Amino acid sequence: MSKENPVKTLNTEVARKIAAGEVIDRPNAIIRELMDNAIDSGADNIIVEISDGGIEKTRIVDNGCGMTKDDLSTCARPHATSKIASETDLLNLTTLGFRGEALSSIAAVCRLSIISGGYKMRASITEDHIIEPATPLNGTIVQAEGLFENFPARRQFLKRPASEGLMCKNTFVEKSLPNTEISFRFIQDGEIKLDLQKGQTLPERFVKAMELHENISLFNLIENSSGGKNPDWSFKIVIGEPGVYRSNKKNIYIFVNGRRIQEYSLAQAIEYGSQGYFPNGTFPVAAAFITMNPSLVDFNIHPAKKEARFKDISSLHHGISTAVKRFFSEYTNRTMKAQAEKIQKAPETFLFEPEKLAEKALESSEEKNETPDGTAGRNNGSYSGLRSRFFGGTSNTLSMMTKETPLNSWTGYASKNASYEKKSLFEEPKQKFSADDKNSAPELSEKQAKTKEIVDFMNKTIAAYSGTPQKTENNDSSEKAENSTQNPLQIQQKDDFHFIGSALGTFLIAEKNNTLFIIDKHAAHERMLFDQIMKNPGSVQTLLIPYIIETSTKKDDEYLESIKNELKKVGFTCENKGNGRWEFTTLHERWNGTEEDLYHALLDIKANPKDLIYSIAASTACKAAVKDGTILEDAAAEKIARTALQLEDPHCPHGRPCYTTITRENLFHLVRRTE
């Protein structure tokens, strides 16, 4: 350097501010560091309180192990920590905080006070660990006030209190998510914003803390590990069903040993595992909580511990993507099976029972003290009122009795010698009467006589409506005709497929089992082609110039060796030439990627050989499927529609549903019609 700018040692105050700037850059960094300490203390109840976005005050209260007077006299000095003692401890970290920079950095840019163990300590850039007696309490209270008030250049870059408060809340959520055994409360400007109780399940904590609008029943828990008595890694993943999606990857969270980190490859593993089950351009809502052997991960590479370095992440990546893919495959199978059973469920039978119908009408009329025709007082005359009440006129007879519900069977014509005998679906009346031998019949009560007249009227109306001659006592052939032919009013539920037509250049409309199906012809055709390709993968292509893939570790060689036979089954023939050099002489005939693409798929993603074929088949099917706006002949359109309703998995390979449905009940609701 020149004589005008000699090298010199910075004074303590400037050095501390520079060091603090790496750790404490805004209010949420204070919350991050202090919540780490509170969790490490063994607390099961932690309260975070901020004022003015955490700029003016941040306070953390916990009921952990607390601190002694000696701890307080040293804790805010540079590099003071109780978490590690030597550099070897960095290879086996079991706590969240470990560097010994947090309290010292906070004291360099704030007014710091700590109450614990019957004492209060104050430290700042102007005060050095002033200790005084305080009221004893269980746990610790840490408070930071006036952030950057002694560092104006940094304070002017803070955002508005509302924005800083939102970042504080997000940091609070990140720290509370993995620790379901701890109660957390977040208070902002005197108002409780979040109150998370201990004992929640991971899905419950995730939905509540993230304040998601979807119901918790739409989230599932996936678990897996590397195996063995002491696995190198294990994980629990909370993930939403395909109906829960976002337009970006911001809602995929990765936690390793309780810390949220930015790790693209692990978020990518969740994305790859869910590929094919979410619509194009959308991503799942998920959080992976990974527990890893501390010796296999290094958090000491970022001042804020937002990143980590893994000794070998490939097996974890493969484990996550495989588990997620298996879950969605099983979920889809369950869902499709349940929907198929619901659609194919036999319709309920409507029982037409004229005797019961007549008796209820009589009871209703008597309760209201009305004559059957609706006039006040008793009247044993005409029953036109009851007839109107039941049928609304002869022309409406059938629509009333069907209740607009398909009928499986209609019976009820009185036979020649037993006009009141039970026939098929009719209930057996308490008393039977013979139409031919009136003298032998017991004397009818008034109510029985009225019931008989109404039932006779129903039978006459049915016969008139259907065009079937009414059976009389002199019609000897009526009973034989009824026994030999089907009832003219017998209506069966139609389960047959009925193609209606095309709509809006994109959709096919079909009807089946009282359900209207609106089918995306491109998605349906794409799925049909995809299934055909997967059943018949096709032949291989031999390369004139082999692909060469060079591995960097022995584990990569072992991995390729383990899947070599599976790769050959799907068209990829490879051989180890030694020194990490692998030669591919054949590829699947539809593969159009480069050497780099193949390397990425096999060694970065560690894709299962079947996943390679899936990707190839999906791309091929999408390109070959009928496009939006293409005009199809009715026969071709009907074939696609009919096949679409028979698909085992009615989703295109990229996750979009092939059709949606509208039931009869849905349509009734839309037009406000009652059954």
Task: Write a compact overview of the structure shown.
The chain is built from 20 helices and 24 strands.
Strand order of the largest sheet: 5-4-3-6-2-1-7-8
Number of β-strand runs: 24
Give the helix tally.
Answer: 20
Counting copies of identical and different chains, the oligomeric state is: single chain
* Form type: flat
| Main sheet makeup | 8 strands, mixed
Which residues form runs of ≥5 with pLDDT under 50? 346-351, 370-441, 470-495
Helix content: 25-40%
Content-based structural category: alpha+beta
Strand content: 15-25%
Terminal CA distance reads 92 Å
Give structural notes.
It is a single chain. By secondary structure, the protein is an alpha+beta fold. It contains 20 helices and 24 strands. The strands form six sheets. Strands 5-4-3-6-2-1-7-8 form an eight-stranded mixed sheet. Strands 9-10-15-12-13 form a five-stranded mixed sheet, sandwiched between helices. Strands 18-19-20-24 form a four-stranded antiparallel sheet. It is flat. The model is unreliable at 346-351, 370-441 and 470-495 (pLDDT under 50).
